[in-house]
Design brief:
about 300 residues; mainly beta; 5-stranded mixed beta sheet; 4-stranded antiparallel beta sheet; 1 helix; about 5% helix; globular; disordered N terminus; binds 2-acetamido-2-deoxy-beta-D-glucopyranose; 6-blade_b-propeller_TolB-like; signal; SMP-30/Gluconolactonase/LRE-like region domain-containing protein; Hetero-Diels-Alderase-like
Length: about 300
């Protein structure tokens, strides 16, 4: 929708990328927001936090009432990208300047906020500006003090402290860089630290990869391992209880990648940007899918 020729071209590519189509679960649209939802995170109370790229605002969707409410605004930036929970009801949110009208990205504008939702009112604190940043999107916790954060333009992985904002480079690798002919400078995007490995997508590189992380030092151990290549505009992903992942891709929707590397197309969601599982008794097997058209969808996974 925002760049339909581009989406069309990618959709054509998708048919030759060799996805195995086993079943397609129909997504239900549960929320019609406006603007561009880039990333989502589910709170322990079941509400889904929605980070907006078109405005610097964090919203919350309540699955029981299907209503969306604004949680906080973030001054000094055009929008938000990644969001993750670092300790119970404390979130890390990335902000910076990406224009959703012309896709220009401002280097040096990317920074990190701490959003504390443990009290009656949301408390936001600007943690750190990353002056050398190109385009920061993905973020994932290492433990309750340290999180990983990645620069999609430069192909750099950092670790940062939620207490001090101090950060350092963990890895700079060609597998994390966008290809030179990329539509925008968007390489490493979705990040998840899971069972001793950092898993990541490279959106315009079309890859899904992992690298082993030392569980004490948070340093990499060994080289990046490529799990899948020839993917199309893959963005965020979420681990299911069985160790498979569900991926969101702008042009193709939601797919599932099993631990053995087999990939299955699950559903078509227009401009899918992010996925996350519910955390309540009723929606544990529900996959929430956001879109850059401002929608939130659910897919029943069992
Ligand atoms: C959202 O809009 C679509 C298209 O107009 C409609 O089919 C759907 O029922 C709406 N969903 C909600 C939750 O409002
Ligand atoms: C760390 O944070 C996670 C996610 O919120 C939580 O499940 C876990 O209990 C936390 N651990 C400690 C020691 O706070
Ligand atoms: C792109 O749009 C932003 C505002 O959204 C504006 O500040 C910037 O100048 C525009 N850049 C180009 C190259 O048109
Ligand atoms: C990012 O955009 C905001 C809002 O327009 C502006 O105040 C800020 O100066 C911009 N940052 C950079 C580094 O250009
Ligand atoms: C990979 O795992 C899935 C899920 O268990 C299974 O359906 C599929 O047949 C496996 N593929 C291969 C090549 O082993």
């Amino acid at each position: 929708m925002h760049f339909s020729h581009f989406t069309l071209a990618l959709a054509c590519l998708a048919t030759v990328s060799g996805a195995v189509v086993l079943k397609r679960d129909t997504p239900t649209q549960v929320y019609n927001g406006s603007g561009w939802i880039e990333n989502i995170a589910v709170r322990s109370n079941g509400n889904v936090l929605l980070s907006h790229l078109d405005v610097p605002e964090l919203w919350s969707f309540d699955p029981s009432t299907k209503a969306g409410t604004k949680v906080a605004s973030f001054p000094g930036a055009l929008g938000l990208t990644g969001i993750t929970e670092i300790k119970p009801d404390v979130f890390v949110v990335v902000s910076g300047n990406f224009s959703v009208s012309n896709f220009s990205i401002t280097a040096g504008s990317w920074g990190v906020w701490k959003v504390d939702l443990t009290g009656a009112a949301a408390k936001t604190t600007f943690l750190k500006l990353i002056p050398e940043s190109g385009f920061v999107i993905g973020v994932t916790p290492f433990d309750n003090e340290t999180f990983f954060i990645a620069d999609a333009a430069k192909g750099t992985l950092y670790k940062m402290s939620i207490t001090t904002g101090d950060y350092s480079v963990v890895l700079a690798d060609s597998s994390m860089k966008p290809p030179s002919n990329a539509f925008i400078q968007e390489g490493i995007h979705g990040l998840k630290y899971y069972e001793g490995y950092l898993y990541f997508t490279n959106t315009f590189g079309g890859t899904y990869n992992k690298v082993k992380i030392d569980q004490v030092t948070a340093k990499t151990s060994g080289a990046v391992v490529s799990i899948l290549t020839s993917l199309t505009d893959v963005e965020d992903f979420a681990f299911a209880p069985d160790g498979s992942v569900y991926t969101a891709a702008r042009s193709t929707g939601v797919a599932r990648i099993y631990a053995n590397g087999t990939r299955t197309q699950i559903a078509t969601v227009d401009t899918a940007s992010s996925v996350a599982f519910g955390r309540g008794a009723k929606d544990k097997a529900t996959l929430y899918v956001s879109s850059s058209g401002g929608g939130l969808y659910t897919i029943a996974t069992s």
